[in-house]
Amino acid sequence: MGLKPLHVKGNKVLCETPLSPKEWVKDKLEEDFESLDEELQDYTKILLVFMNENRVLMLRHLLEKKIQP
User: Fold this and answer.
1) d(CA 32, CA 66)
2) Hey, is 51 helix, strand or coil?
């Protein structure tokens, strides 16, 4: 058994990929990459929100209003 880097989010292991291609299992890799793809799509949505200056300004305004008593 070789090294297997773990891709972890919180306490959940998203993906465990052996470094040696000889140990790769095609079905497992496809499943792991699908899970990572879903995570990346979520992060992309969040980043797209912050790429719009007006949205950032609105968020800042809302946060300032919430902080003030």
Assistant:
1) 39
2) coil
Alpha carbon distance 68, 33 (integer Å): 44
Whole-number Å distance between alpha carbons of 57 and 31: 39
Q: What is the pLDDT of residues 7-66, one digit of tens each?
A: 888 888 887 878 888 878 888 888 888 888 988 998 898 888 888 899 889 888 988 887
- Calculate the alpha carbon distances from 33 to 6, 15, 22, 30, 41 in Å: 13, 8, 18, 5, 12
- Give the position of tokens 């968020």: 59
| Residue 12 confidence (pLDDT) | 86
Domain-wise residue ranges, the chain: 6-67
